[in-house]
Every structure is written in C-alpha cells, then in structure tokens.
Amino acid sequence: MSISFPGESHEYRMARNRLLQQEVELRRATEAVAAARRALPPGGVVPQDYVFQQAGPGDTPTFAIQAMPLPMWLLPSTSWKLAPYSTLENI
User: Fold this and answer.
1) CA dist., res. 28 & res. 13, Å (int)
2) pTM (whole model) above 0.70
3) Residues 6+ apart with CB under 8 A from 13
C-alpha cells in the first residue's frame, strides 16, 4: 500500500518510504532490547541499604518522578489532595 500526498515529488516519496522503513526497524530493535532487558536474570544481592551521601542543590532531593496531573475524579477519595508537582499527599 502506497500513500502519496498531492504535489509531492517521486524523490520525496522515495525518501519518505526509506525513512518509514528505518522507523519500523528502529521500533523492532527497541522492542528486542526491551525483551532482552525483561529476560535478564536477577542481579546480585545488595550488601546493605543504600544511603544518599548528600542532598541535591539547595537541599532538594535529586531523584524526581514526573507524572501527569490527575483529574479530580480519578483520585481515590476526598482524603487525598494534590500537592505541588502533581504528587499525591495523604492529609
């Protein structure tokens, strides 16, 4: 199945088809790497609990989780409120 847009040249379509093929190959390679990662055996035992040596700049944690803000109707109950940076905080 070939798609063409009005006014595109043959060279453009050929280049787009090559790009599409590369994108398909990249997606397959990405999926193969993800499958290999999931198939890894368990790693070694951590000898002791990990403790951070220092906080980030301005005494803020350096580990962050990005999340999409939740609509209010998705929150589990009214005992939860949205805190800064779209994290949930039990009040």
Assistant:
1) 23
2) no
3) 2, 4
